[in-house]
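User: Hi! I'm working on a homework problem where we have to compare a predicted structure to a textbook description. Could you give me the structure for the chain below?
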Amino acid sequence: MVLKIEKDHQRFRQIVKGRIRDDLRKFLSKGELIGKEGKHLISIPVRNIDLPHFRYGDNSQGVGTGEGDEGQAVGKGKGQGGEQQGQHLMEVDLTLDELAEILAEELKLPRIEPKGRHRITTVREKYSSLRRVGPESLRHFKRSFKEAIKRQIMTGNYDPDNPVIIPEKKDIRYRSWKEIKSPQSNALIVFMMDVSGSMGEEQKELVRLESFWIDTWLRKNYEGIESRYIVHDVNAKEVDKHTFYHLREDGGTKISSAFRTCKQLLDSHYSPEEWNIYLFHFSDGDNSSEADSRDCIKLLKDHLLPMCNMFGYCQVASAYGSGNFINVLHEHLKGHEKMLTSRVNSKDDIYDSIKTFFGKGH
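Assistant: Happy to help. Predicted structure tokens:
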């Protein structure tokens, strides 16, 4: 019975995953991803999924118990019943790994091959041996049974015509473990965002959704990962995650300030020989001057691109931004294998933007 229930549950989960995969573009474009993030679970609203339920047989021949006559109304409703069919909406909890698998299957994203040396080492327990003492929860029944048979054969007490095997205390074996040290491929994500006056709430919502999927996919590919956040107008500073998505400034824009702050962060804490580094910058493409844009290109060429696995620039549409910085990148860094750019004019473009960044397995 337990195995059958497990099979039914697995089949239901596959149905749910298939429905999410079919509607993935809609989840991305319409922001239907519910932001209730637990430690490892994300709640996803899924339409038109029927909950598993018991189906009872025909009870037309029977009667209920208790007071009342056959045919008597149980209760009286108020008002008129609706005629429109309701939409079934159910929240399904998925792990980040499951969500990343759906993302990879739908967008056909290749597995990322980590680069650089391994720095982080984890310790895990592996049950690979036996011992004569231990807790009952770790008793190895098969090996204990074999030890009892061996003892009876050696003492001449084994009767093949009437085998009665009764393990004694000295026959009992327990599973034992040893600590295994394994290296992890660790990665760093640096999110940089323009928070000047031209970047409004609509643009920040695009950044929030895009960065969530970036983070989800990279965490699927790396065991150890860190995220750092930099905001800038004419000056840049490192902030926490909450501030990154909610800070609003009114000043101008100097993109090179973010790149310099990022360089200082990498120089101080993250060696490219030990870390897989991913840099993402979000902006409406407005910059203070052509001179600052040239400084940005120099910082990218001489420092940031040689240190990272990938630099992704995502330009979000704004009625107040010039949108020219992406053209500067294309003019000076066109064809660079580590630089990828995308335009996100609306939530409909997030799907293709994620595929642009990770479709080549950087």
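For your comparison, note the following. The chain has a mean pLDDT of 77. The chain is about 35% helix and 20% strand. Good luck with the assignment!
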